[in-house]
Amino acid sequence: MGPGPITADPRVLRAMSAALVGQYDPAMTAYMAETQELYRGVFRTANAATLLVDGTSRAGIEAALVSLIEPGDRVLVPIFGRFGFLLQEIAARCGADVHTIEREWGTVFPPEEVIAALDAVQPKLLALVHGDTSTTVAQPLAEIGAACQERGVLFYTDVTASLGGNEFETDAWGVDAATAGLQKCLAGPSGSSPITLSDRAVAVIAARKSIEAGIRDADSQVVAHPIRSNYFDLGQILDYWGEKRLNHHTEATSMLYAARECARLLVEETMSVAVERHALHGGAMAAGLAGLGLELFGDQDHRMNNVIGVFIPAGVEGEAVRGALLADYAIEIGTSFGPLHGRIWRIGVMGYNARRDTVLTTLAALEQVLRRAGAAVPAGGGVDGALAYYGSAE
Amino acid sequence: MGPGPITADPRVLRAMSAALVGQYDPAMTAYMAETQELYRGVFRTANAATLLVDGTSRAGIEAALVSLIEPGDRVLVPIFGRFGFLLQEIAARCGADVHTIEREWGTVFPPEEVIAALDAVQPKLLALVHGDTSTTVAQPLAEIGAACQERGVLFYTDVTASLGGNEFETDAWGVDAATAGLQKCLAGPSGSSPITLSDRAVAVIAARKSIEAGIRDADSQVVAHPIRSNYFDLGQILDYWGEKRLNHHTEATSMLYAARECARLLVEETMSVAVERHALHGGAMAAGLAGLGLELFGDQDHRMNNVIGVFIPAGVEGEAVRGALLADYAIEIGTSFGPLHGRIWRIGVMGYNARRDTVLTTLAALEQVLRRAGAAVPAGGGVDGALAYYGSAE
Q1: What distance in Å separates the CA atoms of residue B153 and residue A180, rounded to the nearest whole number?
Q2: A82 labeled binding residue
Q3: What is the structure's pLDDT at B218?
Q4: Nearest C-alpha neighbor of A319 from the set A332, A306, A338
Q5: pLDDT band with cut points at 50, 70 and 90 for residue B211
Q6: Torsion angle, alpha carbons of A236, A237, A238, A240, to 10
Q7: Which residue of A42, A51, A202, A248 is most buried, as measured by CB atoms within 10 A?
Q8: How far B391 CA lies from chain A's nearest CA (Å)?
């Protein structure tokens, strides 16, 4: 019950045991096409360029940024948590001229603040986290995406923590590139990064396909720089996933099986029902924590459905509580980073763990551990709070 | 029976179905330490910095090169097949000043030719493939490693295709960095890259840990450049695998389970017995192909144990034979690249497929398919050749 990685769905774990096939076996081509179509459903997009990057969610982030950013490009990164700082750092390593704006952790940007920064900075690319697990809140994206489209700014968003458990619309929101991972609401293991790219993003990448020392115009000015990475060169990776089926690296077949099964689970459930499920059980967890007398962290109007921040009560040793939950109840909850370190726990309710039994068991166990740690907790308050929430939601 | 990826060992496939644990669960720390120790056995090294990169074998190559090469560094890449060209390309994308020497495909360099180039080019790093699956031959490395050590040149080698099926000695041969994959003689799926780094390589990486705009000396000259990649920053990844246990990306836990099981299989068998097994069954396959009247490709004195190149007989359509083997016998053999395209097939005998039954079945099937394709093949010649080899090897 941490903020991810989480307990994987048994169907996903079993999928990885399937026999391997060669990466040019006709069966493999069909598996890839099926996976792409499933992820179009998950990302809510018609993008042809919807595929997997072979690495963890961070590999998907870096593939998108290194493929879209040329050295010297101006990039705007609004930061409201740890993963905003990660986008800043990766963009800087790509050679970008990075501009940032920041918000206090636990809050999100009013969209007009980001739009004003777009006008002030005039970046080529906006890189913005959707849901930042470090702070538990999700940035509203629809207005910002529309503003990017009006201004011709490329819009990249990291949806690793949010996808599948919170509303997300690639096409309707004007997103040019989105990357994810399996280890949150997708109920799988870390190690494969689903990614989708708009035609506009694909055109930017296609212009950089030369690996020569630079593409020059008639006046010998460099107009495009080669992509700095081979492994993350989305131009070459698209040629592998696309009709050309050109060889790049050897596909991570077992992780493709896992990613495909994750998407099947969501598409079978439908995206809207999956989001409702996360909202229901995440809401019940929040109500239960309040019922234990604990104070919730962050802007609750913008809280992600799938992760709840809660202040560690005064006088309680946070790490001792986490240790007891793991040792005595086999339940893991999350610590926190940066300015929140030692101040809050983060409890995940996502993917295979977004269930009534996991919510109630966690609350029952937490009550016992808190009591033994010397906190004054109302007997049954957590479970009562959650059950009341379930009752009112029905 | 292609040149990889190959049929994975069922033990490895089952290992991926194990439940996930959080990446800071004490159990996970123990799994990581166990995996590191197992790979020290596989790589034949005492290097503390022995770990997994979360991506395919190509991810390991890029992690090593982008972490060791600073922009402007002189790098020597001897090329004797497709993967030498890949090392050249990746080094160039890292900003290296790349120098190459080339040999005809199917041959290897006399070590003194590489050593002479070391003296002529005086590189910071030598990047050299061990076994190049595209040509089926393996470059002798021991003398070259000793020469690098004498000259203070960093020595990187890609052992993806060779490790586990051919003799390889990280420490005894003076190798500073070696990277591999699971999908060849390690009998697993693509998606995790075992890697080992000498103390000398770790020191080069440690000097680059600043992500600032460069580390400057007293005269404000830049003396070290930050690593261009976050995902492949081996300095940060070593802090995750090392005693500090700092957070980096979310570990690809299921692939770690796979990599661990691959190493267990080899360490249980012992490395020398595994190499002998590949030599035995690879030799039987080569003898069987000769028994079918086919001509072997490449310098047989330097052929890898685990992959055999064989010329497509005149008048036979190579792709039709591959198609019939797959459709009618469920056996995949490999095509070839570059100057060898359309001229040879490549047949793998590696990992879980390095067995007597797979060798004999493949030879029996190939005989039938070749005969139906119009080739004059001696009845039973393939199986007779292999059985004679097995008999003489006992």
Answers
A1: 40
A2: no
A3: 58
A4: A332
A5: very low
A6: 90
A7: A42
A8: 32
- For residues B365 and B326, is the Cβ–Cβ distance under 8 A? no
Quick one: pLDDT at residue B90? Answer: 96
- Fold of domain B271-393: Aspartate Aminotransferase, domain 1 (3.90.1150)
CA distance to partner chain A, nearest, from residue B3 (Å): 10
Q: What is the average pLDDT score of chain B?
A: 95
Contacting residues of B for A179, CB less than 8 Å apart = none
pLDDT of residue A211: 47
Type of residue at B262: C
For A191-231, the DSSP string reads S-EEEEE-HHHHHHHHTT---SS-EE-TT--EEE---S-ST
- Topology of B10-268 in CATH? Aspartate Aminotransferase; domain 2 (3.40.640)
Task: Look up residue A251 and give its amino acid.
Answer: E
> Whole-angstrom Cα distance, residue A249 to residue A111?
40
ipTM for the whole complex: 0.94
Q: What is the pLDDT of residue B222?
A: 56
Confidence tier at B217 by pLDDT (50, 70, 90): low
Out of A19, A54, A89, closest to residue B55 by CB: A54
Listed in order, the ranges of chain A carrying CATH 3.40.640.10 are 10-268
Record: contact A251-B19, CB cut-off 8 A: no
Q: Is B250 touching A (CB cutoff 8 A)?
A: yes
CATH 3.90.1150.10 spans which residues of chain B?
271-393
